[in-house]
Amino acid sequence: MLTPKMLQALGISSEEELFEEIPEKARIAGIDLPPGIGEEEMIEEIDAILSKNRTAEDMPTFLGGGSYRHFAPAVVGEILSRSEFYTSYTPYQPEASQGMLQALFEYQSFMSELTGMDAVNSGMYDWSTALGEAALMCGRMKHGTRFLVARSVSPERKAVLKTYLKGIDASIKEIAFDPETGRLDMGDLRRNLSDDVFGVYLENPNYFGVFEEEVDEMSTVIGETPFVVGADPLSLALVRPPSDYGADIVIGESHHFGNSPYFGGPLIGVFGCRREHVRKMPGRIIGATVDAAGRRAFCMTLQTREQHIRRGKATSNICTNEALMAVAACAYLASMGRSRLIEVAEVNIEKAKRLSEMIGRIDGYRSPKFKASHFNEFVIGCPLPVDRLGKSLIDRGIQGGISLKSDFGELGEAMLLAVSEMNSEEDLKALAKALEAIR
Amino acid sequence: MTYRQASYDEPILFELEPADSKGGNKQISANVPDLLRRKSLSIPDLPESAVMRHFVRLSQMNFSVDSGFYPLGSCTMKYNPKINERISRDRRASCIHPMQDVSTVQGSLQIMYELERMLCKIGGIDAVSLQPAAGAQGEFTGLHIVRAYHEDLGERRSEVIVPDTAHGTNPASAAMVGYDVIELPSNNGLVDCNTLKSVVGKNTAALMLTNPNTLGMFEKDVLRIADIVHDAGALLYYDGANFNAIMGRTNPGKMNFDIVHFNLHKTFSTPHGGGGPGSGPIGVKRELEPFLPVPRIVKEGERYRFSYDHPKSIGKVRAYYGNFAVLLRAYVYIRMNGGNGLRDISARAVANSDYLMRRLEKKLDLPFGGRRMHEFVLSGSKLKEKGIRTLDFAKRLLDYGVHAPTVYFPQIVEEAIMIEPTETESLRTLDEFASAVESIVSEPAEIVRTAPHNTAVKRVDEVKAARDLIFSYRALTEHESMEAQRRSQAPG
């Protein structure tokens, strides 16, 4: 209810007058929701609801496939809790928003370094929409009706790509993987390339955690066709940036740099491209410049690509993005530095290798299923239906990996396991022991 | 109010690396295939103290809702209650992988399921998907639903109509879904039914409408508009950016809209994070429910699970299920306010806007007659006569410790200044803002034209940024050394 003082100030006798333009037939008397509650009651209610969840801290967890749990130094949380960052708006007024702009510029700089791309924007919703947008961008770079996608990429992302491609009536053609190594089948790539192909997408490491090694050959085969590479930026601490092998666009996900999984959202899609393509790029990008006094300053730039200026001709409809996640990633990379980042990436490889060898020694399991170098994920073949295996693990207090049954039926009973520095030696042993018992 | 923002010559992180930590490039182990091994990685190694000070200084050079008033039209920059933050930091919310066994995520699913039900009641609609990551993605999702609906009827319609007052995302989303965009000229700020009739036809897939519109005016012919659109076999889409004006007074369902998106980061008070994350749930009438993205959340007895078995679904618009951390805050906000509280919020939002408009229209022009709702658009054309552009006026406001309004939008108003105060501001804040505007109007033009003076940096050269295209530290150092060289070689 408005106070009498407010009504008087507005010169009205009841608040209904404020809404008199709403036609009577469209009016409602209120909202059929219970009355509000206080903070203490709210905390109790949420506590009761959230106590039904079991977290990765309550049970050893081996899930990856696009969402990963990594350790964030305490300083990252402290930086993120600065409400000057989290309660600010998009920095359309650069003079009053230099803090956010510089942090986003630094995020772009880190991602540029990791991916090798000249221009990395300040973030897309997630890796999957970055893929959708990358495909649309390829469509602006080259005419064609077919977009080639490695079969070994994330099915979640492929599903989103399919939705995005409907808008330009383009189709997806999958490129097979080698059943022995899990790597891209180069012959199939060659067979499918044609003038009608407007882009090629693969992931490195791919969905099976396998490193694509024949990247230089791939680059030669793909030639002038727009080439999009997806990568976990953590892996890029150790491996060559995709710019090195001809990528025009590099995409990925960086929510695991300083953020928590949050049941799959928010995430933040990495999106970078070569300098010559930047005007075709979607999303917000921060540029360096100077102020009227000649001091270094930052602002959002190339806004003429964006919806608020270009409307129906914009490179994308994206407006609100995931800026705070970019600040988190920036704070994470700053606090980790080169040494710790490389160390964590190596620990991930070593732990995954160790677990895969442990499982490989158990009768009935094939681990790793692919003869290849892996990052922090790998596939195992299971001696029993993988979905039953998953349930049995849950019964034993272990959250196993992702079942590949419905998306990669050709692999039989297969599970994708992810390991990170968050998995202790005890976790690995507990999983191996449970697998031995279940078979 | 005197205001001065902190101003540091804060180096870029890469410049902070102590000299003694350089050159310590770690060798990468043999676990990486030879062909793929990285040769170098230029990321600085910094002491924690340097990192913390860096970001604290940056934060002090950043305007935010927690430090001041944001009368930013169409953005609903209300204060965000801190209880939302406390609850969202709970490890039982954050430390959950999206692919966990469904038996271990019953709490998260319950919150999402109940939030869907709440949004149905607030919106007067039958089903909701929480998947879209932001408002624009809600539009993208909604228009895919429109497309699937018509294709299901064996029709392929090619046009989406948007009024000239629409947010830029509307035409951009329509184009991304493969539609031609038809822009509808407004009449005195509102949709004109006769003009609408002249463009609606068998090719029309949908009309996208924001109500109240971006001028803050309520489209009072909305029921007739709905009839015109529906009679042509097209659907009516509600852009929820301005929902803060109507809660508990009307709803999109009652106005005969078929599809609606909500901006949880606006109406339901989740902080904007410097540009995101947001969340843009999409709601539909019953007959469109089969087309919603998958997975849907279903409740069986007291158990929740995901359901993928919806053959008519448009599929997925992003990975997983939505921005859960944002959904949780919105859940808390709605529960704490309740139905009556939300209704009050809209009353206060509209009253605050009306109050401010009455003061400011004495100093600046208010185009078009009639009532305004939660926001209003002034024209800076009078200032322009004094040689002050709207941009200068906006920059000068920053000197008074308030954020600038949205400017030059909507485009049908010359030198537009779009103001939305929201319900969380006190009359005292509104009065201070009005005084600041009044004082700027009578200031010498030169002070205004060269503003801002009290922010971290002076007027930023955005033209140079668009010309130089420097997006990373590496490019910046190359550019700065090139410029320094040019200066040293310059004659004289």
Could you walk me through the main structural features you see in this protein, from its secondary elements to its overall organization?
The complex is a heterodimer of chains A (439) and B (492). Chain A has 13 helices and 12 strands. Chain A has 439 residues and is α/β, with parallel strands linked by helices. In chain A, the strands form 3 sheets. In chain A, strands 1-7-6-5-4-2-3 form a 7-stranded mixed sheet, with helices on both faces. A 3-stranded antiparallel sheet of chain A has the order 10-12-11, covered by helices on one side. In chain A, helix 5 runs parallel beside helix 11. The mean pLDDT of chain A is 97. Chain B has 492 residues and is an alpha/beta fold. In chain B, 37% of the residues lie in helices and 11% in strands. Chain B contains 15 helices and 12 strands. The longest helix of chain B is centred in the C-terminal third of the chain and has 37 residues. Chain B is globular, with a radius of gyration of 25 Å. The relative contact order of chain B is 0.13. The mean pLDDT of chain B is 96.
Strand and helix map with partners:
The complex is a heterodimer of chains A (about 450) and B (about 500).
Chain A: H1 4-10, H2 39-50, H3 74-80, H4 83-86, H5 98-115, E1 119-120, H6 127-141, E2 146-150, H7 155-166, E3 171-175, H8 186-192, E4 197-203, H9 215-222, E5 227-231, E6 249-253, E7 269-273, E8 285-290, E9 296-301, H10 307-310, H11 323-360, E10 377-381, H12 386-395, E11 402-403, E12 414-418, H13 425-438
Parallel strand pairs in A: 2-3, 2-4, 4-5, 5-6
Antiparallel strand pairs in A: 1-7, 6-7, 8-9, 10-12, 11-12
Helix pairs in contact in A: 3-11, 5-11, 6-7
Chain B: H1 48-60, H2 82-88, H3 91-94, H4 106-123, E1 127-129, H5 135-152, E2 159-163, H6 169-176, E3 180-184, H7 193-199, E4 204-210, H8 222-231, E5 235-240, E6 259-262, E7 282-284, E8 296-300, E9 303-307, H9 324-360, E10 376-379, H10 381-385, H11 390-399, E11 406-407, E12 416-419, H12 427-441, H13 445-449, H14 462-468, H15 473-489
Parallel strand pairs in B: 2-3, 2-4, 4-5, 5-6
Antiparallel strand pairs in B: 1-7, 6-7, 8-9, 10-12, 11-12
